Amino acid sequence: MATTKTGTSSVSTPGTIEVRPATAEDHGPLVDLVLQAWDAQAVAEGLDPKSRPSQRRVRATLVDAGEDGRRSLLLAVEDGTIVGFGEMWVLPDLFVGGEVALLRTLYVDPRLREQGVGTVLVERLLEVAHARDARTVRVTSSIDNVEGLSFFQRRGLRSTGLVLTRNL
Ligand SMILES: CC(C)(COP(=O)(O)OP(=O)(O)OC[C@H]1O[C@@H](n2cnc3c(N)ncnc32)[C@H](O)[C@@H]1OP(=O)(O)O)[C@@H](O)C(=O)NCCC(=O)NCCS
Prior knowledge:
Layout: E1 3-5, E2 10-11, E3 16-21, H1 27-45, H2 55-65, E4 71-78, E5 81-93, E6 98-108, H3 117-131, E7 134-139, H4 146-153
Parallel strand pairs: 1-3, 6-7
Antiparallel strand pairs: 1-2, 3-4, 4-5, 5-6
The structure holds coenzyme A.
Coenzyme A binds next to strand 6, helix 3 and helix 4.
């Protein structure tokens, strides 16, 4: 098991994996991991390779999303290399009557999986959601993503509907 430092706690052995908020300096190196995640998703879900965003566009999205307090972007970092990330938005929702935490993306480099990294990322994001008075957490995942869906189901999330998508 990798050592996972969370800022407030630290768990066990060889490589140390730190979980921390992303800063502007992380945007460049993070782009590669975002595209690695996109490629893996494309293979799994048969996405059109033409819709793969460019490095420039991913980077611009990271920068544009900014730090307005609604987005949390957490990184898992091993020896200075980003090996995982989780992105969550906390937004008001009329039907919930309060804030909803939307966990948009969670990705861990396959080499570092099954060592607790994804769990720590989710736990830290949910701490942020609680601190912002979110009453519900929602995760968007492809219906074909059996591994990802069961990861969240084992953490108490249940399917409550479908996400409909169309390109604009
Ligand atoms: C889903 C995902 C983020 C999980 O990341 P991860 O780092 O492997 O997650 P964890 O290691 O915390 O937990 C996964 C499993 O590893 C095992 N595990 C965790 N810590 C472990 C340890 N120290 N030793 C042995 N096994 C361990 C557990 O079986 C755990 O399953 P659980 O749900 O029963 O707890 C990762 O598989 C991924 O990036 N998938 C592709 C993207 C994706 O599907 N994202 C989710 C949809 S947005």
